[in-house]
Design a protein that fits this description.
Distance between the termini: 39 Å
Order of helices and strands: HHHHHHHHHHHH
Strand content: under 5%
Structural class: mainly alpha
Largest sheet: none
Number of strands: 0
Helix content: over 70%
Shape: globular
Number of helices: 12
Length: about 290
Amino acid sequence: TCIQTFLRIDGYQKSITAIHFFGSVLNIVLDIVMVFVYHRGVFGAAFATGISQMTKCLIFLTLFLRKKGSFRFSRFIIESKLFWEILYRGMPGALVQFDVVLTVASFNLVLLKYVGPIGVDSFAIISYIASLAREMFFGVIEGLQPLLAVSCGKQDRDDIRYYTKGSIQYAILLGAALMALCFALRRPLCVLFGAEGETLSYSVRHLWEFCAGMPFTGVVSILATYLYSTERTKQSIVYNVLRSFVVNVLVIRLFPLLFAPDYIFFSFPAYQAVLIVIGWGIVAMDKRRSRLHG
């Protein structure tokens, strides 16, 4: 991941995309060979993933060692101040990793209590489908972050505003398109991920409710990226703590108490909407504070 980041900063975006595409194709081919040809099951699938990841790593390393970019391996002295600065700046990205974990855990607990095993099985199918959308938003963030960081370094507020506004518009459009696609293809998608019987019926009925949160998810991701990419680390830490540990858990747990259990999946777009309001509030307060201090 570190080497990929250095290469991305050095302008190797096309090469990185090609390498990831090659790695994904290799993973699929090896999965087919290990599972269906050699009948190695879970071990074969894990082995295929490991080989594909190792291959991508070696290609990235080879590209980096060509020394055509700005970054090089060199001798260094460990500086505690720099170490803590890196840890502090990376804290927002670390905190957001708990979002999916606690969201999935909260949904499973609530669904098991109010719906039963069918609800948990259906959520597994729905979360697999939603993960594809998350990966697309991750691509938007990967492109936005260096643009905002460079603009912040140049103190170019116009570019920061331009990139942020454009990314939010793109995220909303992408989220709306994904939501419409999930609604139109809800049955084929659920079947593709292994749903059948009662689980299929329940998943088809509730998939669109969960996917209604996709446009909101994109905006939340952009707001979080804006905060940590423009040196607002403290605000970003607060926002990601609320995003990963507080708002998601509270809304998911309280939703069936305030509404009928049949509407549990609406808690996802609901808590994403709450996070948008909080995010805009943090940004507005920061701008107001900046104006007061000149």
